[in-house]
Write a structure and sequence with these properties.
Layout: E1 4-13, H1 25-39, E2 49-54, H2 75-83, E3 89-93, H3 99-112, E4 118-126, H4 127-135, E5 151-153, H5 162-166, H6 172-187, H7 191-210, H8 223-227, E6 235-237, E7 240-241, E8 251-260, H9 261-267, E9 275-284, H10 299-312, E10 321-323, H11 329-339, H12 365-378, E11 384-391, E12 396-403, H13 416-424, E13 437-449, E14 452-462, E15 468-472, H14 477-485, E16 492-498, E17 501-506
Helix pairs in contact: 1-2, 6-11, 10-11
Length: 511
């Protein structure tokens, strides 16, 4: 009777409400949560919500998205108050795209132990409205004080090291390109070949978004369009043009309701609403990108995906639907490689259209992917779906295997700490903060703004020691353009250290 099940889901994508209305993210999230509660089909569901979790807003996550409009002192309570809920516990997560699935896994454990009756998970962003309000200096305030202090949940560590920070290697738009170029090198492709491969992969995501009324980019971009760099599709962080980056400036919110079989029966929630969590897992790779043995693999994805499938008693061939976390194509490519999926798997790799085309509402995207998966599985009873989630920089991972088919026996999972202990023991790359001398490029990116190349970022190796380092290149346009426009993997040069910063000077044309 304590078997955990998801019983309600709700999504909102709003591309039309005028910025003048100044609708806050809390109003938008409450709208999605009302839909999720109504989706259960039981009017009394709200009365048994013991715990609510809100995914951390981007404004509280990154300075790039900080708002001038003010914020709630207790975001989950602000939403709960709008819903008329009085939960015993209000949680606010630390950052990470893994956190929606992580919280489903956490709540499933608590429900299976009989520790709570039901929980509500919600999150969203109103960055489209925020941008419009701030650009026009409209008299809007999102500041509110509902009282109390939320309990923080998740891992509070920031995702980048001090050395990475000093070299502007801290934002997703600068780190995922490093993965992408490393993947290209591992696969032996030219720049042009890999751009076409990336475009073909993401075009398949775009086609799914084109048929999804909740998606924010529904153009159905062709591979040719995605691979064509022009004013509309300019470089962001090479090798990613704009249309291959997550779409963050959107107004989207979603919510999930999770409870037990016994409680669902008591509330009269129809069985056709029930979605069972058959398998789950949480794990993380070595925390800092510069520590990892290479930039094109993920031992944590490999191990945790297998653990989730094993818990479900399935092999990959028995999974009918997939939603892979897709902030950038490199995240998809690494996930396919580690899970054992072909990138053109006929089942498709997304049920939403993915973050670049469906929308990337901060830390909350996976609430949408689980919600979409629930609807897909309800429409096809007996099918199984796998959802993957990724936080930071292919760092934190969470997995869920879902179905309308009931689980067998008592619900329990292996302590995640057991797997994490094994992953923590894996080797790291030798690293130096103060490199010097002859060196070679392991991976790289050239970051752009609207005016063109802005700075170069190199992950390299000292030739004499094999130690990895992080460095910037000289910022002159000639260097940046050659770094971008020529195949610079394996490029030789010299690296030096001064005042905490490393500089790599390429020696173009040297064999």
């Amino acid at each position: 009777m304590n078997t955990p099940i998801l019983v309600g889901c709700g999504d909102v994508t709003d591309m039309t409400t005028l910025a003048e209305q100044g609708r806050s993210p809390y109003d938008l999230i409450a709208q999605a949560a009302r839909l999720a509660l109504a989706d259960t089909g039981a009017a009394a569901t709200a009365q048994v919500i013991d715990s609510v979790t809100m995914l951390r807003c981007f404004a509280d996550t990154s300075h790039r998205f900080a708002t001038k409009l003010g914020a709630s002192t207790n975001p989950p309570k602000s939403v709960s108050d709008r819903l008329g809920l009085r939960p015993a516990q209000t949680l606010y997560t630390w950052n990470g795209g893994n956190m929606p699935q992580y919280m489903v896994n956490q709540y499933a454990e608590r429900i299976s132990r009989g520790d709570l009756r039901a929980a509500l998970i919600f999150g969203g962003e109103a960055l489209r409205t925020q941008y419009g309000v701030e650009k026009r200096a409209l008299p809007v305030s999102w500041a509110e004080d509902p009282g109390g202090t939320p309990e923080l949940v998740g891992d509070p560590r920031r995702g980048w090291s001090d050395t990475e920070d000093r070299h502007d290697m801290r934002a997703a738009i600068s780190i995922y390109p490093l993965f992408e170029n490393a993947i290209r090198g591992a696969r032996g492709r030219t720049v042009a070949q890999h751009l076409q491969a990336m475009a073909g992969l993401m075009a398949r995501f775009s086609r799914v978004a084109a048929d999804n009324p909740l998606a924010t980019r529904r153009d159905g971009y062709s591979a040719q369009r995605l691979a064509t760099v022009d004013a509309e599709n300019r470089w962001i962080g090479f090798p990613y043009p704009r249309l291959m980056n997550s779409n963050a400036f959107i107004d989207q919110a979603a919510a999930l309701v999770i409870t037990s079989v016994g409680q669902a029966q008591a509330l009269g929630i129809p069985r056709e609403k029930w979605i069972y969590l058959h398998g789950c897992a949480d794990a993380h790779d070595h925390w800092y990108v510069s520590e990892r043995i290479n930039l094109h693999s993920s031992p944590a994805i490999r191990a945790a995906s297998r653990q989730a499938l094993q818990m479900a008693g399935l092999d990959l061939a028995q999974v009918d639907f997939l939603d892979l976390y897709s902030c950038f194509s490199s995240a998809v490519e690494i996930a396919c490689q580690e899970i054992g999926l072909a990138e053109d798997d006929p089942r498709g790799l997304t049920v939403t259209g993915g973050l670049p085309y469906f929308g990337g509402p901060g830390n909350s995207y996976v609430v949408h992917s689980i919600s979409a998966m629930m609807r897909r599985l309800r429409a096809r009873p007996g099918a199984f779906g796998l959802v993957t989630a990724n936080g930071n920089y292919v760092t934190k991972h969470a997995f869920g295997v879902y179905s309308t088919t009931p689980t067998r026996g008592a619900w329990r999972r292996e302590d995640p700490g057991t797997l994490q202990h094994e992953l923590d023991r894996l080797p790291t790359a030798p690293f130096t903060e103060c490199p010097a001398g002859a060196a070679t490029v392991e991976s790289y990116t050239v970051m752009h703004d609207r005016d063109g190349p802005r700075y170069g970022l190199v992950v390299g190796r000292e030739l004499a020691t094999g130690q990895r380092f992080i460095a910037n290149t000289p910022a002159d346009q000639a260097t940046l353009l050659r770094l971008r426009d020529e195949d610079s993997l394996g490029l030789r040069g010299r690296v030096s250290h001064r005042d905490g910063r490393n500089t790599f000077v390429p020696e173009f044309g040297r064999p």
